[in-house]
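Lecture notes, continued. The same structure-token format from the folding unit now serves as the input rather than the output. Read the line below as a description of shape only.
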């Protein structure tokens, strides 16, 4: 079994346990945090390609081609040469910016070589990808300042000591006008104008400069200069990345493979890309408590893409965790706390993650149910033969009808809670559980638990005795 396989086997056991338990979560975060530094060179070329592809939008011209290129380089005793271009256009770095660095970290740990191209030349043009207006050019001082800030903030996700840095002004600044004309004569204008963002801007009557049209050419020349095997970029960069393949072909080079990554949706759930301008971002320099709280505020549907983007979990592990939510053996809040802990642990360490978790629980979770006065009590020995829905309706009068009780279950709002010295553990009841006898459900769901038991229906709570 590979080192990754061994780690996944250990994590699967923890993911099947009680993720409302601090001890279980600490052990899981420790395992998955160590995986961020795990040597992955024992994976086969096919396994390597599939691991990379599992977190990307596209691998062009195909995942099998990536595996073949890895095999070829490995046979020669080499690793792939991977390229990522960075235009340091701002000082505010958020989790969305970390996504390509996490993929690059995996390439590093798979045994490949990474080059970061600092777009000191292209930043003065401004990448038009996804823009509705021309981006203001930057000065050399702006670029230097932004780069220093960028490196410092994304450092937790990427080992900058094992990377080569190049500035694209090295080859773009000396490029002569006759050379550029000769190159442009081989590139159809239609290829440059097929970009949807360009077409939309022209249709709206907005300006479009020649420098923006030439940006993909400049980025493609980066690929020519380095002769890389693979270039990474966001999915909105696809046409720029494909231009690199075309220019390499024109120069008689073997075209690079293209790996595109997803654009991360912002925390507000509106569907818009994470960005500071929209206020829907998680800043990498934000305090641990703020990072934890911001992630806890996101809609449940974002847990899957966020787990894929920012953790080292495999698809198998994510499917297992989400499956537990679907089958109601785990509450979504418990998984979201683990996700928030993963990000804080990456940025600030395991102790900071557990402290942020404890702080969130203390601030936002319910107090101990033992402190709640005048709770209604249900004797399981006396009423245990009644269906749970009937107990809620006729004994406790929490719901007006059995169908209302079933609706609560369908909404994940019907739960059994056990509270003891180690804290609370919660089991979410399914709609089918609402029509089963109370005693049967309690015996099955709270088997092996100690402490006081409670039945919770929405915001209403009753203590269970005699179980």
């Amino acid at each position: 079994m590979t080192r990754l396989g061994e780690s996944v086997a250990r994590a699967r056991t923890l993911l099947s346990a009680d993720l409302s338990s601090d001890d279980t979560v600490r052990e899981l975060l420790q395992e998955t945090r160590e995986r961020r530094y795990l040597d992955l060179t024992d994976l086969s070329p096919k396994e390597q390609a599939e691991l990379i592809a599992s977190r990307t939008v596209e691998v062009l011209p195909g995942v099998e081609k990536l595996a073949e290129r890895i095999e070829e380089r490995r046979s020669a005793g080499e690793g792939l040469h991977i390229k990522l271009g960075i235009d340091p256009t701002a000082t505010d770095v958020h989790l969305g910016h970390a996504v390509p660095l996490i993929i690059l970290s995996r390439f590093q740990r798979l045994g490949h070589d990474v080059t970061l191209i600092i777009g000191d030349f292209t930043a003065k043009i401004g990448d038009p990808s996804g823009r509705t207006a021309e981006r203001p050019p930057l000065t050399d001082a702006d670029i230097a300042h932004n780069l220093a800030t960028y490196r410092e903030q994304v450092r937790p996700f990427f080992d900058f000591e094992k990377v080569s840095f190049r500035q694209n002004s090295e080859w773009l600044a000396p490029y002569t006008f006759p050379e550029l004309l000769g190159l442009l004569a081989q590139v159809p204008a239609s290829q440059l104008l097929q970009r949807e963002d360009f077409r939309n801007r022209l249709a709206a009557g907005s300006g479009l400069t020649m420098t923006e049209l030439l940006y993909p050419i400049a980025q493609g020349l980066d690929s020519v200069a380095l002769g890389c095997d693979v270039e990474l970029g966001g999915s909105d960069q696809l046409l720029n990345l494909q231009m690199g393949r075309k220019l390499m072909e024109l120069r008689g080079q073997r075209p690079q493979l293209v790996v595109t990554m997803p654009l991360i949706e912002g925390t507000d759930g509106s569907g818009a890309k994470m960005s500071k301008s929209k206020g829907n971002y998680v800043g990498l320099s934000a305090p641990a408590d703020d990072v934890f709280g911001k992630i806890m505020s996101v809609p449940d549907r974002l847990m899957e893409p966020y787990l894929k983007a920012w953790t080292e979990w495999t698809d198998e592990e994510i499917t297992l965790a989400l499956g537990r939510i679907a089958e109601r053996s785990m509450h979504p809040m418990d998984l979201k706390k683990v996700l928030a802990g993963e990000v804080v642990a990456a940025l600030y360490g395991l102790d900071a993650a557990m402290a942020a978790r404890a702080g969130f629980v203390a601030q936002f979770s319910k107090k101990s149910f033992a402190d709640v006065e005048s709770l209604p009590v249900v004797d399981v020995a006396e009423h245990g033969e009644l269906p749970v829905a009937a107990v809620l309706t006729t004994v406790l009068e929490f719901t007006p009808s059995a169908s209302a009780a079933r609706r609560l279950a369908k909404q994940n709002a019907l739960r059994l809670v056990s509270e003891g010295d180690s804290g609370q553990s919660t089991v979410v009841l399914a709609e089918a559980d609402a029509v089963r006898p109370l005693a049967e459900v309690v015996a099955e769901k709270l088997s092996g638990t100690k402490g006081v038991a409670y039945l919770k229906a929405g915001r209403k709570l009753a203590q269970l005795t005699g179980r």
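Point for the exam: The CA atoms of residues 267 and 280 lie 5 Å apart.
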